[in-house]
RNA sequence: GGUGGGUUGGCCGAGAGGAGAGGCAACGGACUGCAAAUCCGUGCACACGGGUUCGAAUCCCGUACCCACCUCCA
């Protein structure tokens, strides 16, 4: 079966054929770094991380470009508000974004270009568009440059809208526009805005409009035609519609497939800064292990709205605990081994527009099989079962034994100290049990439990784990 | 007003015309000194009203409600 992807432009699942054999080029819109990322933002990162991992496993050489929009109205406003340069605000939030990538185990994009570093490319593109009759500099002296929507018959194709049905663009005052729906490629410098937020152009000083940077950077890093362009569904219009118009009007082929992830809702509404219903990644990972948050975000199909609730998050953490439990128990018995191959059912699900929920059901099925094997002790069957499970989890970025997640959880001094202490207590308990002194045995177990150490008896003897939520015991 | 998506068991969440996703929770059983973990089993859900069909959660028509976008948005 061939990988197939839902294409927003055609609104159908289409077989994927890359522009260049063996290679996949992906551009997805990163953040406007006006604030630290919330879990809705990071859902998108996780979705594209899974896409990347799956395509990589399929043997493609994957290049991912994700932009950082480091200049816009809100960043400038925040800088002014906080009494510091706009670029300080942008950089701080860019770092928070990178920290969130890392904490959730997302592989960093291949390139992550910033808008402000690509002004010359944008100027060239505007010149091209003006030469072709699809853009114009406003004649009101504002220094704005607009895209001429009426000059491009395909405008509206991506979002399936007719220009006449659209409401006027409010990204700039309408005075200089030929049509109220024309959108800004470039914004002229305004009095009161910091000088540092403007760059020279043939039309005067100014700064990038939001959409142009992506067209310019996608072309620079991925070429005139590339495979997949993605982002949150809320970017389909106007952002992606405008990008498509700019790039194709400038003579490029642009993206073959458009992939959009659905929003993450909180209290029935899209999580967003303007609604004020945001949950920062940095906060949520205090309540639940980061890998469990990732499991939660991954577990719903990327095109389904995910209605966030604390209960659902906790439930996901419990469900993932079962997965993690099998992997660690099996690895204790037969060693971590190498990654194997995903099962055919898993692969078919992933090939079908990343049907992760179906794929995850398969992981659970294989784990149930693995748990049955586990009671028989070490075996080749168990070894290959673990290898398959790990391979499938790896595709989702959820392999607990991978370098990403295993780091810092073993081999450090604290762990060795705890190991020694717990071992001596477990020895006492074993002696008590041998003497049928169960009161003493249970007291030792309770003592450990109150310290957050959970003891389980297995055919191979007792094993213990530190409960993650114990440190937050109330 | 325009363009899309949705409503599934106690909860989360798949599926898209022909016995059953999966998970969480619950209950029963096995295992255990007791637990924990694990395994086995139980639960027969598809917003509402019509229609098509041998057969509809799935297709069609209508109704209600929800969400997103219509130039700040992942």
What can you tell me about this protein's structure?
The structure is a single chain. The protein is an alpha/beta fold. It has three domains: 258 residues, Rossmann fold; 138 residues, Orthogonal Bundle (Isoleucyl-tRNA Synthetase, Domain 1); 60 residues, no CATH class. The chain is 44% helix and 15% strand. The protein is built from 15 helices and 15 strands. The strands form five sheets. A four-stranded parallel beta sheet has the order 4-3-9-10, with helices on both faces. Strands 5-6-7-8 form a four-stranded antiparallel beta sheet, covered by helices on one side. Strands 12-11-13 form a three-stranded mixed beta sheet. The relative contact order is 0.11. The C terminus is likely disordered. The structure holds one RNA strand of 74 nucleotides.
The CATH class of the largest domain: Alpha Beta
SS summary, helix count: 15
CATH topology category name of the largest domain: Rossmann fold
Q: Count the beta strands.
A: 15
Shape: elongated
- CATH homologous superfamily designation of the largest domain: HUPs
Give me the CATH architecture of the largest domain, please.
Answer: 3-Layer(aba) Sandwich
Distance between the termini: 51 Å
Q: What share of residues is helical?
A: 40-55%
Task: Order the strands across the largest sheet as they lie in space.
Answer: 4-3-9-10
The string of secondary-structure elements, in order, is: EEEHEHHHEEEEHEHEEEHHEHHHHHHHEE
Instruction: Pick out the low-confidence regions.
Output: 470-474
Question: Which whole number gives the mean pLDDT?
Answer: 93
- Tally of distinct domains: 3
The major pleated sheet works out as: 4 strands, parallel
Structural class label: alpha/beta
